[in-house]
């Protein structure tokens, strides 16, 4: 039983799974000219138990389990200002009765409302102490000073580590269970790749089931070779934690960086089109930093005439919607 392989790891319950899988009928109708029998589904990891939901909750379940086991009193995290990871760490800390210290820096060009709204606002509402840092170089100093004599647990950047990847390995098993209920098999599972542990976890989880090369990542941060190397290292380490058979190799990792655009957090015409398309046809929200770019990649895949017919495609909706409020002018509303 693959599921028992998770037993050695402590887990803090932060949401009630499984998250729903829904078919996008209206979007399929709109894309009919290019569809060629493809069926489009979304896994609603944007819904979630606490903090406004999002994929980071699955990763935090294992990190926070570890933190609780170590008797941590304060969570310490650093990252970009509109970090979903920081917002959900703050919510998880509130749920578990821990203090939370966040050091966050603005991205180039972020000013005004973007400095105080969205994820920053929510992090503060959850009781975290948020210090705005001038830039990433101030992070080590912030971390050194944050504990103030308390037992601290430092979150990895983007909440990505082999341990947190277990959250998405478990998600792969959840998807396989849902396939049985739906009476189909997915030919491709698509997800945004930032700090890589989510895609890596999915790869490690599907490997437990003997399914390889199923997961397609779209990088929103690193160049493809770097993102692939990170994803491979995390997938292997996660696979080792699960005592999986065989080896995960570079051939199992697929990351495309063609839809990232000028950089992390910078919008592209294609990602904004994808965001509007899903909002207007399905009433679903992508986020401008991650999932809108990955969905742009999925739409490009659909337009690829070399693609097989009748594919079942699953897009993992990863959340991040609070960041929308920092992009009002880009969204043209
Ligand atoms: C963090 C994040 C991702 C990417 O997950 P990684 O494990 O960092 O690659 C995707 N979507 C959203 C909304 C996120 O917050």
Keywords:
333 residues; alpha/beta; 2 domains; four-stranded parallel sheet; 10 strands; 41% helix
Question: How would you describe this protein?
Answer:
There is one protein chain. With about 325 residues, the chain is α/β, with parallel strands linked by helices. It has two domains: about 200 residues, Rossmann fold (3-Layer(aba) Sandwich), CATH 3.40.50; about 100 residues, Rossmann fold (3-Layer(aba) Sandwich), CATH 3.40.50. It has twelve helices and ten strands. It has a six-stranded mixed beta sheet. A four-stranded parallel beta sheet has the order 5-4-3-6, sandwiched between helices. The structure holds pyridoxal-5'-phosphate (PLP). Belongs to the ACC deaminase/D-cysteine desulfhydrase family. Its cofactor is pyridoxal 5'-phosphate. This is Pyridoxal-phosphate dependent enzyme.
């Amino acid at each position: 039983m693959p599921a028992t392989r998770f037993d050695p790891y402590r887990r803090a319950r932060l949401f009630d799974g499984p998250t729903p899988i829904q078919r996008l009928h209206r979007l399929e109708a709109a894309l009919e000219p290019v569809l060629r029998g493809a069926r489009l589904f979304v896994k609603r990891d944007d819904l979630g138990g606490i903090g406004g939901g999002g994929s980071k909750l699955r990763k935090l379940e294992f990190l926070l389990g570890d933190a609780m086991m170590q008797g941590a009193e304060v969570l310490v995290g650093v990252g970009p200002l509109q970090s979903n990871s920081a917002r959900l760490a703050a919510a998880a800390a509130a749920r578990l009765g821990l203090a939370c210290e966040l050091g966050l820096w603005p991205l180039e060009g972020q000013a005004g409302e973007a400095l105080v709204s969205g994820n920053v606002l929510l992090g503060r509402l959850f009781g975290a102490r948020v210090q705005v840092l001038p830039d990433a170089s101030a992070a080590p100093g912030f971390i050194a000073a944050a504990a103030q004599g308390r037992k601290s647990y430092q979150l990895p950047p983007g909440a990505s580590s082999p341990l947190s990847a277990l959250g998405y390995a478990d998600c792969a098993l959840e998807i396989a269970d849902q396939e049985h209920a739906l009476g189909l098999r997915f030919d491709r599972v698509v997800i945004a790749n930032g700090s890589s542990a989510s895609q890596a976890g999915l790869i490690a989880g599907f490997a437990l089931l003997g399914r390889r090369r199923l997961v397609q990542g779209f990088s929103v941060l690193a160049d493809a070779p770097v993102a692939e190397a990170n994803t491979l290292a995390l997938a292997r380490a996660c696979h080792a934690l699960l005592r999986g058979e065989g080896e995960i190799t570079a051939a199992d990792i697929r990351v495309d960086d063609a839809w990232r655009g000028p950089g992390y957090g910078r919008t592209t015409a294609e990602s904004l089109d994808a965001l509007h398309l899903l909002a207007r046809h399905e009433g679903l929200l992508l986020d401008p930093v991650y999932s809108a770019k990955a969905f742009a990649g999925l739409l490009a895949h659909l337009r690829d005439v070399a693609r097989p017919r009748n594919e079942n495609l699953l897009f993992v909706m990863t959340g991040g919607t609070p960041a929308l409020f920092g992009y009002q002018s880009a969204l043209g509303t």
